[in-house]
Design brief:
9 strands; about 20% strand; disordered N terminus; single chain; alpha/beta
Amino acid sequence: MLQRADRQPQLTGRLAEVFFSIQGEGVTAGLPAVFIRLQGCSVGCQWCDTKYSWDPGAGREVALGDLVEEASAFACRRGVITGGEPLESPLFAPLVEALKGRAFTLEVETSGTLAPPPVPVDQWNVSLKLAGSGVPEAKRIDAGAIRQFLGLGAWWKFVVVDAADVAEVLRLAERFAIPREKILLMPEGVRREEILERSPWVIEECQRHGYRFSPRLHVLFWGARRGV
């Protein structure tokens, strides 16, 4: 006997948090947005400021429909799906489709370690990890995925600490023909003082190479806090 449609089990997954704030970094920094942080990440950057989102069994279990309602309750129709690594979540593709059905404009924050599924994302923000992240190159650089993101017009964000990091960005940009105007450099730091100290040098590097500078507004305003 067939089950009634309203009795079919809903897709579920793990969620770290949902909150309303402003985009803190990237080309849309300063825009109000609903942040949906999916749980689970196997990349493991040593300077990650959201390590609470790594464990795929942590956070809270949520049904897709309930998550869409929670995100839609805010008076904003710009969403940022992040993580963790959101592309590792079974909720990711269905969530994109459901939020687009609610008239959301969607950004996705990803490490670029997995190929993008064919879903209607408006803006891909790809943060390729550099050697200083502590992630082995075989894990952090997936040439096939990078080329797919290039075809989708992604923005490329790099967290940098020193000249060696910038030199690595230059090598990656040349290897994959990443458009200069699509590259953003960001100072590494989880404290306001670190961001302020490193920003002038990063700005100089952006001027030197024709890249964009990205602030980290959430760190400057609120520090290492969740839900901002």
